[in-house]
Amino acid sequence: MLTVVFIMLAEILIFLPSIARYREDYLLLRLERAQIASLALLATDEMISEDLERELLANAGVFNVVLRRDEVRQLVLSSPIPAPIHATYDLRDAGPVELVRDAVAVLLDRENRVIRVIGNPVQAAGLLIEVTTETAPLRATMIEYGLRILLLSAIISVVTAFLLFVAVRILLVAPIKRVVSHMTAYAEAPEDARLIIEPTAGVREVRDAEIALQSMQTQLTGALRQKERLAQLGGAVAKVSHDLRNILTTATLFADRMEHSNDPAVARAAPKLVGSLARAVNLCESTLAFGKAEEPPPRLVRLALRPLAEDVIDSERLSTQGDGIAFLLDVPAGLTLRADPEQLYRVLSNLVRNARQAIEATGEQGTIEIGAGEDEGAWWIRIGDTGPGLPERAREHLFTPFQGGARKGGFGLGLAIAAELVRGHGGRLELVRTDEEGTEFIIRLPKTAAALEVAAQ
């Protein structure tokens, strides 16, 4: 329907020049016939009967004919004019706008008018030719011609609309229905990769839509599969953590008895062993809680940072393979901050462990340093190493679980856990630099009461 309407509008714009051209041709034909009739009179030395003169004028469709030849205006043929001359039209220099205007005026005027028409004689047979005629026959033929144009336009528009309708059905509607059917089928089973659409449309815009849909479906299917694997892994980890917690609780009971040993070395190691087992039990409980919800909110207390950092270094030093890694501690002895001791220990332990494993993977010597300080708004803890730096893939998914692993066999959980625990304190964990000379992270914990209260909730 829109195509029919638009083509008819276009035909209307074409109709006015066409009808103006038809009127001009009609009047020029009358001038030509009038000239031929006048030549018949001149050929007989102007000696013709009145009946023949009336017949010549009737065949020409005019009332009289005036020729101007050799600067002399001569009335060649004449007959009674039924009414005064209404208007004069000079076709010798009429422009397109004037022709369209005069044609519209003829169509709108239902009265039969007598008009004078001036034009150039054909074959240069004089300076001008002038005739008088009536408008009723002209208007009737113009209306008939216009109706033929409108009918032909209607037929063309209907045929064009039908062809366009078929083309749109084939090129647009069918591919769009295919996309909709794929979306419907995919919505019922988004985990099934077989339902991901394959772009086949020939129209570029529809094909772009299919490509975008394919990309979205691929990403969504991958995300759903990953979430499913994570859910299964979370269930398995929760079961393991549950049993491991029971085992570690028993080990803690035996470690408590070791504190009373007469062996000085055992007596010195027993407190650290008990502390490590206590942290392991707490981690298992946190893992069980994480399987149900997020990390538990931090229990904020005032704590001295240096002893906690020393515990982290001592634990990692025991895990170091050989003496190739040096641990440096640049934490003021009197620096205290508000944080959850267990969670902050896990944050530092994850960062230091990642640094140690990265250096050990190179087989070369290296250094790990923990530094700390404070300013007016926050405490900061810096963990730097001289390792090989993070690979490109790890930088892109730095704090994303199971995607940001920096070493072969790693799961990328350490940084993700550390970042989540720091956010729970209202702070942020940032990567300061990573290159061939090493990697440096910084932890910022706010001092403001509002941030600490939000973190504690």
TrEMBL record:
It comes from the Bacteria. The chain crosses the membrane at residues 6-23, 149-172. One of its GO terms (molecular function) is kinase activity. Residues 239-449 form the Histidine kinase domain. The keyword Transmembrane applies. Its EC number is 2.7.13.3. Gene3D superfamilies: 1.10.287.130, Histidine kinase-like ATPase, C-terminal domain. Pfam families: HATPase_c. InterPro entries: HATPase_C_sf, HATPase_dom, His_kinase_dom, HisK_dim/P_sf, Sensor_HK_Regulatory, Sig_transdc_His_kin-like_C. It catalyses: ATP + protein L-histidine = ADP + protein N-phospho-L-histidine. Keywords: Kinase, Membrane, Transferase, Transmembrane, Transmembrane helix, Two-component regulatory system. This is histidine kinase.
